Amino acid sequence: MSETIVTERRKKVLKGTVVSDKMEKTATVLVERTFQHPLYKRTVRKSKKYKIHDPNNECKIGDTVRLVECKPISKDKSWRLLEILERAV
Hints:
GO molecular function: rRNA binding; structural constituent of ribosome
Distance between the termini: 60 Å
Oligomer: single chain
CATH architecture: Beta Barrel
Function: One of the primary rRNA binding proteins, it binds specifically to the 5'-end of 16S ribosomal RNA.
Subunit structure: Part of the 30S ribosomal subunit.
Shape: flat
Strand order of the largest sheet: 1-2-3-5-4
Keywords: Ribonucleoprotein, Ribosomal protein, RNA-binding, rRNA-binding
């Protein structure tokens, strides 16, 4: 008898700033990362925008939020709001 071992994989958690909240139950978050260039050894900044699921429309532009990976909710959304770290002034 063979047993199937199901291991829950760790979900990615990112931190970013809300840049748009015009959609219903969706916010756009800008996530920046820094890394060292492999050849020139300079620090490089890269950014990427993610659409996140915000069921209660809590996010406002300028908020710092934490987002977590989830199963695809729509064509573009596969991240959801985990928590709001800091409110915009």
